[in-house]
Each structure stands twice: as C-alpha cells, then as structure tokens.
Amino acid sequence: MYYKQLDDFPKNFLWGAASAAYQIEGGFDADGKGPSIWDVYAHQPGNTFKGTTGDVAIDHYHHMAEDVALMAKMGLKAYRFSVAWSRVIPDGDGAVNEAGLDFYRRLIKALKQNDIEPVLTLYHWDLPQALQDKYNGWESRQVIPAFEKYCRTLFEAFKDDVKYWVTFNEQNVFTGMGYRWGNHPPKVQDTKRMFAANHIINLANATAINLFHQLVPDGMIGPSFGYGPVYPLTGAPEDVLAAVNADDFNNNWWLDVYCRGEYPYFERKALTRAELMPEVTAADDALLKSAKPDFLGINYYHGGTVQQNRLEKPVKAGDAKEFSATDPYLMQPKAEQAQSPEVPMFNAVSNPYLAKTAWGWEIDPVGFRVGLRQVYEKYRLPLFVTENGLGALDELKDGEIDDSYRIDYLQDHLKTMKEAITDGVDMIGYCAWSFTDLLSWLNGYKKRYGFVYVDRDDDGPKDLKRIPKKSFYWYRDIIKQNGAQIKA
C-alpha cells in the first residue's frame, strides 16, 4: 500500500535498545552468582568462536552506571534487559541471592531516574546449570515451579517500577538450537526431545503470565518471538502451499499457543503422524487456554523463502540452501535429519531479490512491515519490537566508528515500521539490538550490533572503553524528533 504521507509515531512511543544478561554483564561469579548453562557450555572446547565466553563480556555488571549515563545522553525512552536467573537464585530454586537482586534494583532505579522505561526479560537463554543437572533442564516439568518461584521473586520485587515484562526470548530459537541442532546448550540433537521441551516451556510461559496478572495487575507481559514472514519462491500453487506450511511450522506453532492457547490444528496432526507430538494433558490444555499475553514482542531480522517440498520436487545437488549454525528462524533439516517433519512440507531456498549481511542473513525491511501486519491482523495484540539490528564488522579508526551501513539498515526498517503503523498496526515501541556491542553467542566479539563501541575483542577485554558510534547520534536525533524525519 502506497502513502503520500505517513502517520506520526504514537506520542508516547518507546524508542529503545536491548541487551541480554549473559552477553553483556560479565561478573560470572560475582556476589554469589551461580553458573548458568551458558557459563558451562562456553567453556567446553569447540562450542564457541575462538573459545569466547561471557565471563567478562563487556563487564556491564561493573559499568552499569556508565552505560545508563550513555543511554540518558542518547535520550532512550526504553531499555530492554534480561535478568540472569542464576544471579538472583544461584541454584535455580533455592534461596534468593539478595546481592544479585540488588544489582537489578539499582539498574531499574538508575533507568527510572533518567526517564527510561525498563523492559525486563525474565528468560534470555541462561538457565541455571543446577536445574539442568538436577532435572535435565526444560525436559522436565519440575522446572516449571522453579521458574514460577523465580518469576514471583521478580514480580514482587519490581512490580511498582517495571510496567513491561517479557517472559521468554525467542523460544523458537533456543529450543531449536539447544535441542535439535545441538549448537546451544544443552547440546542435544533430537527433534522429538525438542518438541517435548518446547511444550514444557509453553506451560512455564502460561504459568508466569497468570501469576503476573495476579501480582502486577497494572503491568503488561508477553513473550518475545523471533518472527520471520515466509514467501513462496514463485507464484506456482505448489510453492504457495509450501509457504503456508512453513508459516505454520515456523511461526504459528508458537504464536497460536501464546495467543490462542492451542497448537495449530494442521501442524499438530502432522507431528502426531510423525510421532513427534509431545504429550498434552487436559490440564495442559486448560492452562494454555487460561493465559493471555498483553502484547507480543517481535524480534525481526529476516524471513525466509520456500518452494515445493523436496520429495515432490527433488533438489539437485548443490541447489539446496545451506543454513549456518546461527540462522535462527527457518528450521531446515540437515542431512542426518532428512526424516524431519518439514521435509514433506517445504524446502527453504535463498531469495534472489535480497542482499545479505556479512553473516549471510537476508536484509529485508519490507518483510518487517509484512510481518507486523500479519501478526497484528491475526492476533490483535499490541506489538513491541523487542529486537531489530545489524551485526557488522565495525572498525575503530582515529577514535571513531563510521557505521553508516547500520544507519541505512535501521532507517529502512524504521520506515517500513512507520508504514505498518500507518496501515493500522498498534505499536508500543521499538528496541534496537543492541545498545552496546556485546558477545554474540557463537560468533564472539567480532560481530558488533551496538550503538556504542566497546573496546574489546575475541582475545581479551582490553580497556572496555565505551565509544559512541555514528549511529548513536543518528538514533538520538530520531528519538528527539519522535521519528518525524522518517518520510514516505
């Protein structure tokens, strides 16, 4: 849809930036913090790029005041961060570590003093290692009451100061990476176990939302989902059907549970036929139906393109799209998992119309608008963009970083987001990924996302000096004018 003029961003639109505890905090054992699954996994040889870990990361734990001061200088209206579960409850379900809780209390206070809305993520992939050892992590229902206790601790501590809460970050990504591809902890390669763990996480999500509505009646809570719209490669009906299948498999499988309290019918039937459907009790169904999110968080980097499945349309050697270990959304089977459930449904391919980042991720700002439109039309919940950004090889030259490519990327995505608002999508805010440079889970420190450069590399922390990039000042001006300079 074409517009000569775009609607304004909402008056109280939350212009923000985001982070995750393990990727920035450091202080892995400071003040009584217990180990998380990532603290352990990153120290196992061969699991991360050049053996990089979050032991120090960018040491936000000890640079928090400096980082918040930079947020204030930028004029941020919101800052999305995650709490490290094992910093607050070191063994996952035992005594509360008051020193760990106090770190987040001080962070929230500093944000509020600078008129920055805290957006608190309860779980961003760092399960306490004690729960992995004790219960086998998310494969056991016994983790649900532990998560409920952890959530209760945070709800009661911060209910008066935090309005926006995120339950799980990219459940579709961390279950696939951890339980199917085996390149995140717990390093499992078993599709059936992935779907089983995913169901337990759905129950934990519903439990947290219901508890939140009891304890924080004036707040808003919802999951953040790694969303990617799906395109058919051609107008051939077989490719269109493949795109419908892929959307069901990659998006609706999670979003329908979050927003409708039920698994999508066609996908549930397909997994049952493949003997991959997890056990769902009547009590499970009731719990999932009872939990209603107040908004949906959308993490957008790219979508995917598909064609007719490879069984009906065999693929020539070398023609199939090869996915990297960090390609987050389309779950395309590897050779050893050719029996995977999506094989009869669709075959993922590269989109010939899209450029790619240095890491092979397609750049598709129009897909951002497509995705926002699709999700809002289907579920009619306010949307909060909780991640969107560009990972790049930023270079420090003469004390400055000219990341004009990041500005171009973000400018294009903000324009299509503004077009989606003009279309009628109800938007709460936008948190760019990320505020500072940080640890990329599997790519170390060379893949930079931040508005603020942090002087460290894969070989060590150096002096950790914070240096605002060119994009820092560009985004500051966007915030100051509430995006008025973004035109049709």
TrEMBL record:
**So what EC number does this one have?**
3.2.1.-
Pfam families on file: Glyco_hydro_1
The organism's superkingdom is given as Bacteria
User: Which residues participate directly in catalysis?
Assistant: E387
Q: Which PROSITE patterns match?
A: GLYCOSYL_HYDROL_F1_1, GLYCOSYL_HYDROL_F1_2
- Keyword ATP-binding (UniProt): no
Q: Return the SUPFAM superfamilies for the record.
A: (Trans)glycosidases (SSF51445)
Q: What class of enzyme is it?
A: hydrolase
- Matching InterPro entries: GH, GH_1_N_CS, Glyco_hydro_1, Glyco_hydro_1_AS
Which GO-annotated molecular functions does the record name?
hydrolase activity, acting on glycosyl bonds
Alphabetized UniProt keyword annotations? Glycosidase, Hydrolase
Q: Name the family the entry cites.
A: Belongs to the glycosyl hydrolase 1 family.
What name is this protein filed under?
Glycoside hydrolase family 1 protein
